[in-house]
Design brief:
By secondary structure, this protein is an alpha/beta fold. It is globular and about 80 Å long. The chain starts with a helix and ends in a 6-residue tail after the last strand. A 6-stranded mixed β-sheet has the order 1-12-2-3-4-5, with no helix packed on it. Strands 6-7-8-9-11-10 form a 6-stranded mixed β-sheet. 37% of the residues are buried. The chain has one domain: 4-Layer Sandwich (Purple Acid Phosphatase, chain A, domain 2). It binds fe (ii) ion.
């Protein structure tokens, strides 16, 4: 049995790390692991924050979907309807980004363009009109027209100023966009209904239902998807194109979107069947933003190909 002196010497000898040669150098030492852990603790959140602030708000996607409409007129079969929403022209959204997205519209071969509200983020000090005109006077031709409805932000900073919306109408009258203010238009046999935003004093769905024939092909434009749960809309059984939520702008695995500006939290983004089970919503996550941050909810240009279908929700 070795003496205590030998035991100690043995342990000391055993604990000494031999000089490392490139061949036997371990890949992960404790020191390296701790350094990497410390770096990732700092870099991962920093990288995620930088991505959410500087990349995703400007990384719009073009999403193509089909839109089956009961009794769609033959002349509209296969036509391409482009939806953009929540562009928020003004002091918050980068104008170069919007110009680049609008330039892309020239390549997307749309037949009809709809803008589902929040054209502007109104600011008395930095008025949006010139920037807005620049975008909309440089649009390509859309053979079936360009139509819009107002969102809450189009009624001023507190959403209670119809005079701002009327200024918007005046400015946009210099472009090819026509607003559908609580009204119904006919496009080659397709009824296109539009309502002003629910949170503003301009919302009024009565004129819409005085004109709308629910037995004929139809499509509604309505900024805030909560409208579909209103009593007046209970029998509406067509598509409704909306925006407003921006998809919450940030979505986290296991949590979802913590901030959603709707009463019915099912109406976050994308295709959703209404609570009535009759209507189909498409909630566009927006092209602009209310704050310059997005995470896993990229901005979007949506293209719908119109098709004839006898069972909307089948
Ligand atoms: Fe918005």
């Amino acid at each position: 049995m070795p003496s205590l002196k030998h035991q100690v010497r043995f342990r000391m000898t055993d604990s000494v790390t031999p000089p490392a040669s490139p061949a036997n150098k371990p890949l992960w030492t404790r020191r390296r692991f701790l350094a990497a852990a410390a770096a990732s603790t700092v870099l991962l959140p920093t990288g995620t924050a930088a991505y959410a602030r500087y990349w995703e708000p400007f990384a719009y996607r073009v999403r193509e979907l089909s839109m089956p409409i009961r009794d769609l007129p033959n002349s509209l079969q296969g036509k391409r309807l482009i939806q953009i929403s929540d562009i928020h022209v003004g002091p918050i959204v980068d104008q170069n980004y919007l110009q680049s997205a609008f330039a892309h519209l020239h390549e997307l071969r749309g037949d009809l363009l709809v803008v589902t509200g929040d054209f502007i983020s109104y600011s008395e000090r930095d008025q949006p009109w010139e920037k807005l005109l620049h975008l909309f006077t440089n649009l390509p031709e859309f053979p079936l027209g360009i139509y819009g409805i107002t969102g809450n932000h189009d009624c001023g900073e507190d959403w209670q100023q119809p005079e701002i919306a009327h200024k918007l109408f005046d400015v946009m009258s210099e472009t090819r966009l026509a607003f559908i203010n609580n009204d119904v238009l006919d496009i080659e046999g397709l009824q296109l209904a539009g309502v002003c935003d629910l949170w503003t004093p301009m919302y009024d769905s009565r004129p819409v239902f005085e004109k709308l024939d629910l037995t004929r092909p139809k499509l509604a434009l309505c900024h805030n998807p909560d409208v579909i749960d209103k009593k007046a809309w209970a029998d509406y059984d067509g598509w409704m194109l909306s925006g407003h939520t921006h998809g919450g702008q940030c979505w986290f695995p296991g949590v979802g979107a913590p901030i959603l500006s709707v009463k019915n939290k099912r109406y976050a983004q994308g295709e959703v069947i209404s609570d009535s089970g009759k209507a189909k919503l498409y909630i566009n996550p927006g092209l602009g933003y209310a704050r310059p941050v997005r995470f896993l909810v990229p901005p979007e240009i949506t293209i719908f190909t119109l098709t004839k279908d006898d069972a909307l929700t089948a």
